């Protein structure tokens, strides 16, 4: 019977208290008190450097190098995330600018090619039958004037010329409004005035 009591007392002591490894000899710490003290220690180690740094800044003092290093270590993940985000934004903006520049260059080249290759036949194929199409002989060349009436705005006059030879090609001379008051100097201006010019026909 004495052995039974000894076993019960030993069994009950194992459940009521647990010795923490590394504690001072002769001290017994319960599991709940160890957990609470561990959590408090964790909070102190996590937030103490930040609190000290903020106190120094509020007091108008520069933090010490040790405080700054500790703060940098604690917030390293935040800074890395912010750095990656900034780099990503810069790369995206750069890519967008490059794509926009490429699209603008491609459009300008296409428009210049469309205007450079325009002939009376191409013009009629692209924009349909003209409002007027007059050819005159002005020795030693022939002049051809083609006039289009856009839905909005003044009439647009195209002037072509070629030599009197039968197989000579028409050369595009000018594109102006009906009153000859203003010309269209660039390919972009010409196509803006008559969008059907921007065609592969």
Q: Could you characterize the architecture of this molecule?
A:
This protein has 201 residues and is of the alpha+beta class. It has 2 domains: 2-74, no CATH class; 76-201, no CATH class. The protein is 54% helix and 15% strand. The chain contains 6 helices and 4 strands, in the order H-H-H-H-H-E-E-E-E-H. Strands 1-2-3-4 form a 4-stranded antiparallel beta sheet, with no helix packed on it. The N and C termini lie far apart (113 Å).
**Count of all domains:** 2
Main β sheet profile: 4 strands, antiparallel
Number of helices: 6
What fraction of residues sit in β-strands? 5-15%
Mean pLDDT: 75
Uncertain spans, ≥5 residues at pLDDT below 50? 9-34
The CA-CA distance between the termini, in Å, is 113 Å
> In which range does the helix fraction lie?
40-55%
Give, in order, the helices and strands: HHHHHEEEEH
């Amino acid at each position: 019977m004495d052995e039974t009591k000894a076993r019960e007392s030993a069994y009950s002591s194992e459940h009521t208290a647990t010795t923490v490894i590394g504690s001072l000899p002769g001290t017994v710490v319960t599991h709940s008190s160890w957990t609470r003290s561990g959590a408090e220690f964790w909070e102190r180690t996590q937030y103490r450097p930040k609190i000290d740094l903020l106190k120094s800044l509020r007091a108008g003092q520069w933090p010490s190098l040790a405080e700054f290093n500790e703060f940098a270590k604690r917030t390293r993940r935040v800074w890395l995330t912010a750095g990656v985000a900034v780099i990503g934004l810069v790369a995206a903006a750069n890519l967008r600018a490059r794509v926009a520049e490429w699209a603008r260059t491609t459009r300008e080249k296409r428009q210049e090619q469309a205007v450079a290759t325009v002939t009376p036949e191409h013009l009629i194929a692209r924009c349909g039958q003209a409002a007027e199409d007059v050819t005159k002989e002005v020795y030693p060349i022939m002049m051809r004037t083609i006039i289009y009436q856009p839905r909005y705005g003044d009439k647009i006059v195209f002037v072509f010329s070629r030599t009197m030879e039968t197989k000579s090609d028409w050369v595009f001379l000018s594109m102006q409004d009906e009153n000859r008051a203003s010309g269209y100097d660039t390919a972009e201006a010409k196509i803006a005035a008559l969008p059907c010019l921007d065609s592969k026909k």
